[in-house]
Amino acid sequence: MSTNRRNEVKEASIRIIRPQTYPLFESRLDSLKLLLTKQGFHRDWRGLAELASLDVAAMGSGKISPTRYTLIEWGKKGGLIKDLWLHLETIDRFDVIDDTLEAIYSDYDRVDGKVPPLPPLDDQVIDELASVDANVLTIDDKNNLAKGMGLQRYDALVLSSDEDSDFVQEMVEKLEGEYGLKLVLKDRDLLGGLHLEPETIARLITERCNRVIVVLSPEFLNSNTNLYFTNFAQSLSIEQRRRILIPCLTKPCQKPALISFCHSLDYYRAKGYWNYWEKLRDSIDAEPRQPIRSGVIIAELPSPSSPTTRTPSSPSAASTAIVGSFPPNALESPSAMSPATSALSSSGPVNFRFSKLFKFPGTKSKSRERLSSE
């Protein structure tokens, strides 16, 4: 806990941290964590940069570790060791504090009267760090940055096999051309020369895309890479408790076990019975709809005060009035009632009372009396 930490070190600048200590932070914070804190912060260098009011995208740029870049820039802006400890606690990384505590003490003792504070980076080094942006993954990112805009956010990532290219082309024409959604496709949008393509796609899924569309077909399922990303997206969906994966079947096939209970949009079953592309659009960009009003109203009415009224089997003493759509002669002729209604009326005294607010055509007062409890 913070009560066991040296008070004089808390007030020191983050710039006392020596280059030899940076790897301790880098090895623990550079790797991206999928699970967020309860407050919604990332549990890696991104959460630290966000809490330090730094540009997260800029901190991920350059040739050095994003954690090191964050600490250097934070120190230049006046960050203190106590702020570093506080923010590490906020992102639930007490382990980083414990693993680096002695190294920070050592750095502080060396700086105190022996080593001057670390100088800020000069402009040449900053330009060199900014020359390579590790977060520029797609052509849209490159174009946006050239216009002074941020990195591109996508409505959905599309995963498919080469054999389904015609289906994917039609999907792109419908969703992007007609509905204005923004999709990202590996072959069309990823920049050349990216290292570790699987890691790039995983970053798109976790950081940049709202949904993941998987075009399931026998050919798609023959690829271990496709299965990996499908299971990855579904696992992320379960962990974050939100709908991420949208399976689309072009032809009948066996879905992977992890998504076997996930509802799919089957293109081969639509056959003009419903608008397949509109349904896919709504699945990607779901908007709140007005609640559907039922045509049948069920209301509670007070139980009659007559002493001869039979006690209902339910614990409630109230009677149920059902108002709905009945044939005009339903109340006059038991034969016009549905089998379920006839069974109710013949099973003994039933405590049904129809509200006076609703009047059925062709209904006489005798009919109401006959339906009332005896």
UniProtKB/TrEMBL annotation:
| Region span, Disordered | 297-320
Q: Which GO terms describe its biological process?
A: defense response to Gram-positive bacterium; innate immune response; MyD88-dependent toll-like receptor signaling pathway; positive regulation of canonical NF-kappaB signal transduction; Toll signaling pathway; toll-like receptor 4 signaling pathway
Matching SUPFAM superfamilies: DEATH domain, Toll/Interleukin receptor TIR domain
Stretches assigned to the TIR domain: 152-284
**Gene Ontology molecular-function annotations:** TIR domain binding; Toll-like receptor binding
Q: Which Gene3D superfamilies match?
A: Death Domain, Fas, Toll/interleukin-1 receptor homology (TIR) domain
Listed Low complexity bias regions: 302-320
The protein's name is: TIR domain-containing protein
Task: Please name the source species.
Answer: Meganyctiphanes norvegica
